[in-house]
Amino acid sequence: MQREQRFLAALVRVTSYELDGRALTLLAGDDAVARFTAEQARGV
């Protein structure tokens, strides 16, 4: 539950995002708040 609360608090701070290939970075000003990387689906 604490992890979820920290994640939601970080989302509130997001002001922009960067998309670079398979990576999505959520930004608060110039600071990276979260990074997500897509993996290629297996068996496709």
Tell me the layout of helices and strands.
Layout: H1 2-13, E1 16-20, E2 23-28, E3 31-37
Antiparallel strand pairs: 1-2, 2-3
Number of strands: 3
Radius of gyration: 13 Å
Largest sheet: 3 strands, antiparallel
pLDDT averaged over residues? 93
Strand order of the largest sheet: 1-2-3
Q: Kindly report how far apart the N and C termini lie.
A: 34 Å
Count of distinct structural domains: 1
**What proportion strand?**
35-45%
Count the helices. How many?
A: 1
Helix percent reads 25-40%
- Give the overall shape: flat
Low-confidence stretches: none
Structural class computed from helices and strand pairing: alpha+beta
Oligomer: single chain
The succession of helices and strands, N to C, reads HEEE
Identify the notable features of this structure and list them briefly.
44 residues, alpha+beta, 3 strands, 27% helix
Note down, in words, how this protein is organized:
This protein has one domain (2-37). The radius of gyration is 13 Å and the shape is flat. Helices cover 27% and strands 41% of the residues. The protein has a three-stranded antiparallel β-sheet with strand order 1-2-3, covered by helices on one side. The longest helix is centred in the N-terminal third of the chain and has 12 residues, at 2-13. The protein has 44 residues and is an alpha+beta fold. It has one helix and three strands; from the N terminus they run αβββ. It has one helix at residues 2-13; strands spanning 16-20, 23-28, 31-37. Strand 2 (23-28) and strand 3 form a beta hairpin.
